Amino acid sequence: MCCLVIGSTGSYYAFFSCLFIGVASIARLFEDRSYRAAIGGLALTLVIMGVVVAGAIPNIMYQRAHGPNVEVANRQASESEIYGLKITHLLLPGAGHRFPPLAEVGRAYTETSPPLQTENTMATLGLIGGFGFLLLLVLLIVRGRATPPPILWRLAVFNLVAVLFATIGGFASIFALAVPTIATFYLGLLPARVIELAIESIATIL
Questions:
Q1: Assigned domain for 202 exists
Q2: Planar angle of CA 158, 167, 173, nearest 5 degrees
Q3: Does residue 205 lie within any of the structural domains?
Q4: At 45, phi and psi to the nearest 5?
Q5: What's the whole-model pTM score?
Q6: pLDDT tens digits, residue range 28-83?
Q7: Can you tell me the distance from the alpha carbon of 13 to that of 5, in angstroms, rounded to the nearest whole number?
């Protein structure tokens, strides 16, 4: 049922759900040395993709009959760089922060005229979110010396994949060359949403 709902919401949530379901399946494959999780993840992905395609049939039929809509934005692969995620924005406070000292920190960065200042400037996680983001990265480093709870380890993997994919110059840029229509979706891939999708994916796989 969850797959049907995800697929019916459009390509945005469907794409990222399939991405994280795939990551969860691969992680379970390495943990359990069993193909069961991989097969289950593949089945869920196929269901989501099937619902997306079914929902797009009316649009496809219309375009075949009347041609594409030339009035809508023509997305380019380069937009994945322009609107991509910046880790700096995740951790630094925004220039409009209500606490003046923190707002000054944000303005100090903005005044250096950094490149690619777009809607990604609104990606600030805040103190607690930023701490959680860094904690998940640290867990990947110290796992060999300590054993974190399985849920934290899995969230750490999701967090790393999300950053590598969404950040400017990341794997999203490569993917956008093949699928440019999804090129501007990566900014929405913020760790808060990553955690939500991670929990949903893990719960589905388990």
A1: no
A2: 105
A3: no
A4: -65, -40
A5: 0.69
A6: 887 777 777 778 888 888 888 888 888 878 877 777 777 777 667 666 767 777 77
A7: 10
